[in-house]
Each structure stands twice: as C-alpha cells, then as structure tokens.
Amino acid sequence: MTLSEIRERAIAPALALLPARMSSREAEIMLLAITQQEDPEQRRRQWPTGPARGLLQFEQGGGVRGVLNHPSSRDHARRVCAARGVAPEPAAVWAALERDDVLAFAFGRLLLWTDPKSLPGEHDAAGGWDLYLRTWRPGKPHPGRWPARYAAAVREVMR
User: What is the top-level taxon of the source organism (predicted)?
Assistant: First the structure.
C-alpha cells in the first residue's frame, strides 16, 4: 500500500475508534513514519522469524501487553478490541495484528498516547526519533533511515 492508502484504509478507521483528542496530523505523521521504519516491505511479520507482528511490528510481551495494561490506554484498547472482534488478551491481539491493519494502527496510536510528552511537530524529525525510541524501543534501531521516512510522512499528511 502507498502511504495514502495506509492513511485511508488503516489509520483513519483506527483513529475513528479512539477519542477525537487522539486524532491529529502529528499522530498520523508518527504512525506513517514508524510503519516505514518498522515494516517498509509491509510483510506484517518480523522477517524472517522474529516475534513482531503487524505494520507497526508489535511484540506480544512488549507493545501489545503494554497497551493492554497501561492506565492511559487499557480502557481504550479494550474498546478497540471489542470493535475489531478480538479478545483483549496479548496472545489474541498479537495474532490478529498480522491481518488487521486497523487494529495495528489503533494500538500504535495508543502506544504513542502512553508517552507523557507531546507529539513532535512536522519540522521535528529528531523529536519524532526520540519518541519512537522511547515507545517502540527497537532492538536494532536505524537512525540513518528515519529522516527520510519522517519527511515522507510529513509530505503525505501535509499535502
């Protein structure tokens, strides 16, 4: 999918499942930049045999469990799970992420929501990188790839 298709088919429906205050250009920029960073080939499974699933590459015991249990996201996560027909349990959500992009982006937005700092603006790729590191905690970060991916996300959202 193109970035436009991701926004239309996955991010917009995901944000519609969440409170309006969670929808913003900044949130969309971060979600698009992260999916490009985490799963640029859109395999929805960490290649070749890793533990992460979905376009945002959530691990069952990491991001999935975190979103389901964090005080600022757990109630929203349960509502999202109900809307998507998924049991609000780490194993069930993790398995569903591979085939449900809306669920993946809803959980992605909720993970960003757990961070106490404000979302970075369109001109703050460094702040976006810092937020990505704090929330996704990538095992093998690739900082050299981030600026172009953040810029592509900004172009898509701001056009």
Answer: Bacteria
